[in-house]
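Reading a protein record of the kind used here takes only a little practice. The integers have meaning only within a learned vocabulary of local backbone shapes. With that in mind, consider the following protein and its fold in token form:
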Amino acid sequence: MAGAEPALLRGVGVGNWLLPEGYMWRFNAGATSPRRIEAIIAQALGQADAEQFWVSFRDNFFTQADIAEIARLGFDHIRLPFNARLLIDSEGTPLSGFDYVDRCLDWAHAAGLGVVLDLHAAPGGQTGANIDDSQRDLPELFTDPANRELTIELWRLLARRYVNHPAVIAYDLLNEPLPDKHAQLWPDLVPLYRDLTRAIREIDTDHVIMYEGAHWATNFTMFESPLDDNACLQFHHYWSPVNPERFEALRTQANQLGMAIYMGESGENSPEWIREMFTTCTQRGISWNFWPWKKLDTTTSPFSAPAPTGWEAMIAWAEGHGPALSRSQAAELLTEFLGNIKLSNCQRRDEIIAALPLTPP
């Protein structure tokens, strides 16, 4: 891929499945990160029933039916975000979360889709915000050597396990690292990328490695020399005007580094904005990935899961401005939630699908 763009890719991100995000449950405060959502569910149901809830959630939220629909609509790949906590413990031992990744890759291969493996929440947290599941809302991947070593070991495990899997198309090393409030740590980003690259290339010499910039994958000033000869700069673009000149400037920088370019996240906007954004990328030959596939009660994703009747009470509790629910109340809401998130029970948002420049088979 060095210095040249691959065939145009059109993908979708499977947010919320292996890394729950509060806003996808309509929690905009309080229970916004995976561990905080898990705490609310445990309080609601008790620990044993909460564990079973998460098994059912992962069995229902994303299935082979979702993969089949993604392929039918004309997407050619998915970006699969995951939380390191599902895959590796603090000692570096692999965990059962790998089973979900295996399942997804096999479904994707059977449907003719590729997969970008996306470390969305690294050990310790790479962002210091809810999306990276950091314990203290700090990017402790960059301040604790143990987290750094564990992240390197996780990518070794991933490379070893998937080096020959036909569905894998790229390794996305870190999602949206180091927003500008942590700019003092920016000099540490590329050295970590070099160490991760070295660890992967000891095992896997073939798959594309993707590098995201700082500040929500928008700032690439710290990239000054090539990192690999099969590499890609990944940028994200939200809530700002569609700016072809910026995209071309990023492509020029990537090419100077011997890399391709990939727009790895955008969406969460009106159909008109989405149409302009993704048409612009397509016309300029920039591969893209739409975020996300589905979430609860939304108008901005291809599919929307209906909110359970009375879900406002769960939101109020999760956000910290309402009373705790009784166990029976919570169980009723969460049981309905688990049914609603199945693709067969979701509402298709045709206006979002029509805004994307897809090529159905």
User: Anything to note?
Assistant: The radius of gyration is 20 Å. The mean pLDDT is 97. The longest helix spans residues 145-162. The longest strand covers residues 114-121.
